Amino acid sequence: MISYRTDLTGLNADDFRGFFEGWPVPPSSVALLRVLANSTHVVLALDDGHVVGFVNALSDGELAAYIPLLEVRATHRGAGIGSELVQLLIHVIGDVYMTDLVCDEGVAPFYEKLGLMRLTGMARRSRGASILGGSEP
User: Fold this and answer.
1) CA-CA distance, 133 to 27, in Å (whole number)?
2) For residue 26, how far is the Cα from the chain centroid?
3) Rg of the chain over CA atoms, in angstroms?
4) Is residue 76 within 8 Å of residue 53, measured between CB atoms?
5) Dihedral angle at the C-alpha atoms of 37, 10, 28, 66, nearest 10 degrees?
């Protein structure tokens, strides 16, 4: 049975190994744990105590929130976990004016089903950022 929580208490980097399937150079589990710990909000999906998905947000708490990551393990996709994570996170974020995210074209319909709309956006990617520098130890 899937449970959801909004804190990282008792978890360590090993709990986050194996995410970012298909990324050319995925962040390490150590870096991912730091990212989530430094996020304004996080929602985790757990199956029998094991992390099977997560979503995070950065927010000023008043005007804007940004959702940078949503990941569900391949073994658990198609069960509504991603949708539940996003809906719970939007609830946790609260009533800010804008909640934005950037996604690949192929997953835009997923977010549209959750009530998000397409907008024109711009982005900069620093592919040499230190978080992308290492593989799992």
Assistant:
1) 8
2) 14
3) 15
4) yes
5) -30
Residue 130: the pLDDT is 65
pTM, two decimals, is 0.90
Burial 4-31 (b: 16+ CB within 10 A, else e): eeeebeebeeebbeebeeeeeebbbbbb
Listed as ranges, residues in the chain with pLDDT below 70 are 127-137
CA distances to 58, 94, 106 from 118, rounded to whole Å, are 20, 20, 12
SS3 at position 35:
helix
Residue 35 · residue 19 · CB < 8 Å: no
For residue 40, the SS3 value is coil
Contact 91, 84 (CB under 8 A): no
| Residue in 16, 62, 17, 59 with CA at minimum distance from that of residue 38 | 59
DSSP 23: -
**Whole-number pLDDT of residue 126:** 76
CB atoms within 10 A of CB 39: 20
pLDDT the model gives residue 63: 96
